[in-house]
Amino acid sequence: METFRFFNWIKEYGWRHLIALIFVTFAVYPILFVATNSIADFANLTNSKLIPEGLTLKHYKLLSSNPLVPYFKWLFNTYKVALIAAFFNVFLGSLAAYAFSRLQFKGRRASLLTLVIVQMFPSFLAFVAIYLLFFQISDIAPFMGLGTHFGLILVYLGGSIGFNSWLIKGFMDTISPSLDEAAKVDGATDFQIFRKIIAPLSRPILVVIFVITFIGIYSDFILAAIFLKDKNLWTVAVGINTVFIDDFNADWGVIAASSVIAATPIAVLFIFFQKQITGGLTAGSVKG
Amino acid sequence: MIYLSMTLSKILKYLFLAVVNSLIVYVVPLALTFESWFFLSLILLIGFLINFVYFTDRFQPMKWILPGMIFMLSFVVFPAVYNTYVSFTNWSTGHILTKTQAIGILEDRVFTADDQKGLEFELYILQDIDLNFYYVANLDSENILFGRAVTDDEIFTSAYATHEPSFFTNDEFSTPDGYYQLSGKEQIANSTILQELSLIIDKNTRAQLYKISVFGASTGRLTSTSQLYSYDEVSDTLFNNSTNTVCPVVIDNFECEGKEIEPGWRVYVGGDNYSKLFSNQRIRGPLGVVSKWTFQFALLSVMFSFAVGLLLSMILNKDGLKFQKIYRAVFILPYAIPAFVSALVWKGLLNPDYGVINSWLGPLYEILDVEPIKWLKTKESARSAILLVNTWLGFPYMFLITTGALQSIPKELIEAAKVDGATGIQSFWRITFPLLMVSISPLLIGSFAFNFNNFTLIFLLSGGGPPIIGSEVSVGWTDILISFTYKLAISGGRGNLFGLASSVTIIIFALVLLISAISFRYTKRLERIYGNI
């Protein structure tokens, strides 16, 4: 009787656990390996192990003390660019979304259709033209030309604002129009309605859009790589892939440490907002 | 007392207008000096639009849309159009400039005729506190010339040397205050730098160091320089003053005695880039390989990660299964890590010499008595590695969306099928799967489109390598169209082939459009077929 119940368990549940565990290993192994390696006491990749023998923070110290690898400068640059671009994205995107959702005007449908069509083509596809455009802007206005964070932020702004307006507009459409109609009767202007009623009620989507845009820009490689030539202005994505690929074996501990620092905040953010990020949004627009 | 009442909207509006207009005031004169009429008109147009919309009340909705719209038009729509233009030009290394700019550079070039090298004299070399070099050329008592010694780049901006008789007392040179005189040995130590320097005497004459003397003053020599090329507008030719030859225009360069003169300039070349892509065997071949692999890579990536994701969501979709929450939490981890980090980490794991994967497979290699796989170094291993890593990156997303879709399928449907005598497999293929596809297929196509241009993974994991031998341009076996474009334009080691790269981009644009169109029609059709089950 006991054995029968055991076989029954295997048939119903056991094999499911087995397959699930195989894929748990597959999913987790690389992450765990890097996380432990970043604090493990070893010399190089050859003798690294999943379970470290001694713990140390030396890789993190090396990372912060090497003047040739200004890692924390890169980290600062990345946060700076991504935060500024994400903020203006949400701000300007919500302004446009308000107009599309609440105001009646000629060409409204046509503009919305344009947004959808433009959104099919990721902005980095035309990176050659973007490069040449900013190459020429460098002559006229060097402060926003090639090699500047300002220029890069402008490109990021342009790249996602259309789609973001579209998403925010969708959310604003679900807010009952009776609220702003009542306000209008009381003499509120459009901007007051936006600021006091629509924007606060849209906060959930605005937060999500901010997070998605932030993660997208943080993870971008191609635009940052063509834009930024000065080592001190690099973002993390450009920096760690340019510096650490020379000697994988000897640098492994530092690579692991830099990966942990670069990935942890994004992973936490992502897991926290996981439901909202995957809910309804398509893959292409989320991960960069 | 004046009471100033400003609402937030007014403050924002005037702040915005102030920033925009000061930017315009700053940029317009610069655009004028650089003669970029195109940018000038663009800036003025945008500036006019903004001021018009915000100072009149006629286009109320535009006030809300315009800021975002300008960014989208300038940095997404315009680059796409500009990209099309670039694809019809020869824009590439050696042909970066406009013709006017190229002529300007050529006319600045100078040469020294052999018979003009002459007069030798005493030369003293000084250094100031900032370590700049200064020359004192003692031509005769009327011409004791002093000035900063400059490199060729500074010739046209540097001031001429001045006559300084006070440096000599009784025919003896005395070092002026604030300067240090270099000894012969120090001159030898700095000789490579000194050789590049000249003292500018007048428009056509320079003094250069000729012989270093360890005892006493070194010797300098005068050289006359004259303009090497003069451009003649009427005949549109360049005249070489050194060889007295006429250099005509050949398409996008001046050609002197059959030799192209760098730099050339950019011109409209029609469909040349496109015909190069399709007719030059050593480009067409690799382009074919890359295009085929781009489709394979995107398709297989979606299939593998979808298969794994669906398998896992089916397995976990069972009432009473323990640890469900933990499994779910773990399965999304790979998706939460930025792709550039994952690519780097996997590159480490796959390292053929030191990586964990080969040390795991070590015993297997011994049993089978084969050489360890050179991950990422051969075509097959690089392609399999990329698919493996992309499955790792992509299955969590597929797991999430299939879980959601499975839960939304009504249980009664499956039970009804069971009552009608369908086996588990039958009901899966006949009911669950088709229903799943209705809601999932747009997302699968979206994922396909994303991977079609998944530059980050390819470039950071394999760099597109290993290289395809015998190709005219730099390209590898795992390059997809977008990374191929990147190599052509930026990092190929064969210069920047912007024009050619842009024509590949146009192909990508066309394919993305095609994918989107198919996606649209396919979704519609699926909804018609299965929408009313």
C-alpha geometry of chain A: flat
Question: What do the pLDDT scores of chain A average to?
Answer: 86
Shape of chain B: elongated
Give the distance, in angstroms, between the N- and C-terminal Cα atoms of chain A: 55 Å
Continuous helix count of chain A: 14
Would you tell me which CATH topology of the largest domain in chain A applies? MetI-like fold
- Strand neighbour order, sheet with most strands of chain B: 2-3-4-9-10-11
CATH architecture of the largest domain in chain A: Orthogonal Bundle
CATH architecture name of the largest domain in chain B: Orthogonal Bundle
CATH superfamily of the largest domain in chain B: MetI-like
Can you walk me through this structure?
The complex is a heterodimer of chains A (288) and B (533). With 288 residues, chain A is mostly helical. Helices cover 75% and strands 0% of the residues of chain A. Chain A has two domains: 2-56, no CATH class; 69-286, MetI-like (MetI-like fold, Orthogonal Bundle), CATH 1.10.3720. Chain B is an alpha+beta fold. Chain B has three domains: 8-86, Methane Monooxygenase Hydroxylase, Chain G, domain 1, CATH 1.20.58; 110-227, no CATH class; 276-530, MetI-like fold, CATH 1.10.3720.10. Chain B has helices at residues 8-33, 37-55, 60-86, 99-107, 184-189, 191-195, 272-279, 281-316, 324-331, 333-336, 339-349, 356-368, 379-408, 411-419, 424-452, 455-461, 481-491, 498-530, and strands at residues 110-111, 120-127, 133-140, 143-150, 162-163, 168-169, 172-173, 180-181, 198-202, 205-211, 218-224, 226-227, 229-232, 237-240, 245-247, 249-250, 253-256, 259-261. A six-stranded antiparallel barrel of chain B has the order 2-3-4-9-10-11. A three-stranded antiparallel β-sheet of chain B has the order 13-14-15, covered by helices on one side. In chain B, strands 16-17-18 form a three-stranded antiparallel β-sheet, with no helix packed on it. In chain B, helix 7 packs across helix 18 (498-530) and helix 8 (281-316) packs across helix 15. The mean pLDDT of chain B is 85. The interface between A and B is large, with 95 and 100 residues.
